[in-house]
Specification:
By secondary structure, the protein is mainly alpha-helical. It has helices at 18-27, 40-49, 59-76, 78-85, 95-104, 111-121, 133-157, 162-169, 173-181, 197-209, 215-223, 231-246, 258-267, 273-281, 289-301, 303-321, 327-336, 340-351, 353-361, 367-383, 390-399, and strands at 2-3, 8-9, 33-36, 54-57. It is built from 21 helices and 4 strands. InterPro entries: HTH_IS21_transposase_type (IPR017894), Transpos_ISL3 (IPR047951), Transposase_DDE (IPR002560).
Length: 401
């Protein structure tokens, strides 16, 4: 609990329950403005214990709500987005002709081709290639999540309450609540960072543009620039560049400069739903050129994505404009052609409309809370880990310098 005028912590409560906050407010009457996040428990406690106080929904949390809704929408439509941003490669038209010519001239077949031919003659479909280990693990994880989802839904249909399902399956209450609302979606993983990532653009410039193909020499050059990884990573990466060169992609003539190459490299990757959600919510001038290009491609290819982009931009501008009168226009726009995720966001805002309008128009917000005091609280908690209870934590937060 902070005094926003004096910018000091005035109390620390043991939990986030409405009853706890209501008791504290009853002991401290006369508060005129209360800035809070979007918690319904806080809203209920303030209405009960301090009905005369003006509730102010924090702008940071409003933007966070927008980005969360946008990311949910993008995850639901991610297969369609991937198809737009990176369509499947077309098969080479000459491959079948080449195979026919090889058989025609009597070129010896490989053992794999012989096995495939025998299966085709026997009327049996060829064995599909095994998935990579990582993909197999992802599929197994999703199958386990779907099995748990079916168990939760079955118990719920049989009349079990949420807390009973929690005890019956020995799982977290949040998981039960989440799975009762929506089925688990396959998770989208992005590759982890590598020590070589900052130097890949330089290596491609040297390899494709300047013609240096020696992995040892290239590794020595990037070490002088600060690279601290192993030699095998460099060797493997240079080998992948040789494979690209052998497949004529990219051609040396298509790479005119390092800047152009970086742009092509960025375009070759399909961004994750989390990354694309920032594209929809941020102002266009804050996006990189390749991000603007891919966002434009998405909006031109799909009308619903274009509408989601428009709703996200309107809400972001509304929060920054400090003009609460435009909120009702945005709520009407959400109702015209509802997208489920934005409709849910609109319903939550409409039910908390007075606080949202106050958050847009008034100067009070939780910047000092989220930016400074929360970080300080977490630091003190980590210093006290497994050593003390809440009473000492409260005393340190209130009185420690």
């Amino acid at each position: 609990m902070l005094d926003l005028e004096r910018q000091v912590v005035i109390d620390v409560l043991p939990d986030r329950k409405a009853k706890t906050l209501a008791s504290w407010l009853q002991e401290h009457p006369g508060i005129e403005f209360i800035s809070r996040d979007r918690s319904s428990a806080y809203s209920k406690a303030i209405r009960t214990a301090a009905p005369a106080a003006v509730q102010i929904a924090d702008r940071f949390h409003l933007k966070q709500n927008l980005r969360t809704a946008t990311e949910k929408y993008l995850r639901r439509n991610y297969p369609k987005i991937k198809a737009i941003l990176k369509p499947p490669a077309e098969p080479k038209p000459t491959s079948e002709v080449k195979k026919a010519e090889e058989i025609k001239v009597g070129k010896p077949l490989t053992p794999a081709q012989i096995r495939k031919s025998r299966l085709e003659l026997a009327g049996m479909p060829p064995t599909p290639p095994a998935l990579p280990v990582r993909e197999q693990k992802k599929e197994a994880t999703q199958a386990a999540r779907m099995e748990l989802y079916q168990q939760i839904r079955t118990l719920h249909r049989q009349g079990f309450k949420q807390y009973q399902i929690t005890h019956e399956l020995d799982i977290d209450a949040g998981t039960v609540s989440q799975y009762l609302k929506n089925a688990p979606q396959p998770r989208v993983y992005s590759p982890g960072a590598s020590k070589l990532d900052p130097y890949k653009a330089y290596l491609k410039q040297r390899f494709f543009v300047e013609g240096c193909r020696n992995a040892v020499q290239l590794g020595g050059e990037i070490r002088t620039q600060g690279y601290s990884g192993g030699n095998s990573i460099v060797t493997q990466y240079v080998a992948s560049l040789r494979a690209e060169l052998a497949n004529h992609s990219p051609t040396e003539s298509s790479i005119k400069s390092l800047a152009e190459f970086k742009l092509n490299q960025s375009k070759s990757k399909v961004a994750t739903p989390r990354q694309i959600s920032w594209w929809l919510c941020l102002p266009g001038e804050r996006l990189k050129p390749w991000e603007q290009a891919q966002l434009q491609l998405l909006c031109e290819a799909d009308a619903e994505i274009a509408r989601a982009y428009g709703l996200s931009q309107q809400f972001s501008e509304l929060i920054g404009s400090k003009n609460a009168d435009s909120l009702v226009l945005w709520l009407w726009a959400v109702e015209e052609e509802p997208i489920s995720e934005y409709a849910s966001l609109g319903w939550g805002i409409a039910s908390d409309r007075a606080a949202v309008e106050a958050g847009i128009s008034l100067r009070w917000n939780q910047g000092q809370t989220e930016g400074g005091q929360v970080n300080r609280l977490k630091t003190i908690k980590r210093q006290m880990y497994n050593r003390a209870k809440f009473d000492l934590l409260r005393a340190r937060v209130l009185y420690a310098a």
